[in-house]
Model the fold of this input.
Amino acid sequence: MKMLDKIKNYAEHYENEVRDISNQLRDEMMPELSRELFDEYEITGNRLRYEEGYFKRREFLSTFGLASVIWHKKEDIEKLEYVIKGICSEECWALSAHVKRLENPNWRMTIDLTASETGHTLAHLYMLLKDELSEETKECIRKEVFRRILTPFMSAKAPAYWWEDATNNWNAVCCGNIGSTAIYLLEDGPEKDAFLERIRYAIETYYLAGFGEDGVCEEGLGYWVYGFMNMVVFAMDQRLYNPTYDMMALKKVEKIAHFQEMCYFSHGRTISFSDGSSNGEYPIGLTCCLANLYKDIRFPDPIYARGFSGDRCWNWNELYTGWYWTKNYLEDVEKKIVEEPKPLLEEGTDFLKDAQWCILRGKDNTALVAKGGNNDEPHNHNDVGSFLYLADGEALLEDLGSGEYTKKYFSDERYEIFCTRGKGHNMPIIGGVDQKAGSKYRADAFERKDENTILISFAKAYDVSSVDTVLREISFEKETGSFTVRDHVVCDADVPVFENLVTRYPVTVHTGQDHKNKVVIHGERHKLVIEFGEAAGAVLVTKEPHVNHEAQDELVNRISWEVLHNEQNVDCKMYFYLEQPDK
Done:
């Protein structure tokens, strides 16, 4: 099926899903948000139980909001008004994990990601349904959005909030939502223009500075979606309000717009560095909008586009644009205003100098992605010099991405958690310790030797004084999907050096008479065979506990072996190749 037809099918299914969910929710009551649930994060560190009820209420808001916008039926609008009244009566629009009650007596007015989203959603519905909502509902929206969002922001001198000059997704989400809210609700005039100038300054000066010239979002693909989506919504609203100023025309923004297509592979697999996910579902509305604006935007397969019910947070911007921008794009393709959608490139190399990433794509859906960087990146993991390997949709060598978000996960104990520490990544463990967190722990070189070979120097990532050199060379064979990793370490003879690999798949270990060690990772579609020389000790496969982002317990296989010293030099050459699985 042509990609264009797949997008048309997606759009049809999307509207059907909105209708089905609205019918399911019509006779349901929204869950209550109790103080007991709110308190759990402070007491136990658990945030998910409160958020389950919070986001269920946003499901009601987004579902009946979009149903009302699409079909304008009385039964949907009446239910929406009931929902809006409930949202406006909430004690606090911010999440419990983002509120500091002991430090801030005005904590109920905290403006965080979700508070700004809530204000924007209500303001947008006010604008879209202005002639259909009751005067009481419209007054409720205006009162609460001004009280909780617009007035506090306007009355405080910039930068009033820590995220206003942050270089991460918080800036784009909060500033973008507040900026669009102002466009919808503020009267035209100097005050509004000054407000929007402040928002543009924050986004352009700080949020965009968080990207290098290569357009990479070091926070991870999911945070690119979250931050960039909200920025683009504001930029498009701003352009409509004032056509003389177009943030989307900035060269850096166009570069950032191409980041998503570099991160996607077959079977919906994605790059999962930092707090990313290895199984992505992409926002097709945003992709359609970008394809309307820029040439050569490429679409992942639409079967991996996130549906209406695919986002647990029920983010209005993504859900509304999933319908609106997709519909507009299909109309423009039909009118031949824009070209038909283009698929991802199947082979090639992306060497991303600023982020120190290298993405190598081979035949038969094989890919290797390596990174340098530093250990003070947004949503950082201590993973300088690591890599992941994909074959036909199987992450045979894994980057686990995000763990469960708990209080501990964002505390000084973060790097005690398996998925964020060095042992949770495919890289050497030197001197019996993990890499350290901090910007000084970094790669001092990340070079491209040829089209398919990269060299990473990263001794600085280890806080071991007797380590002089850590050099990793990775060579990828695009025709076969095979690759070689050569590690060279210079250190004192009493410093142990272990190789370390991570996979979710079963592992078997074989030791031959020729002293060649062989490890086999057993995927469902492929086996990955790893051959290397004599180890100083046995090859160990350890079951490591991991709690994933959905709070599910897993056991992950960590493969490790000590490498022999030759005086002060430690050398290990690993050859990786694919075989068919045993039948």
Summary: The chain is about 35% helix and 20% strand. The CA atoms of residues 81 and 137 lie 6 Å apart. The chain has a mean pLDDT of 96. The first helix runs from residue 3 to 25.
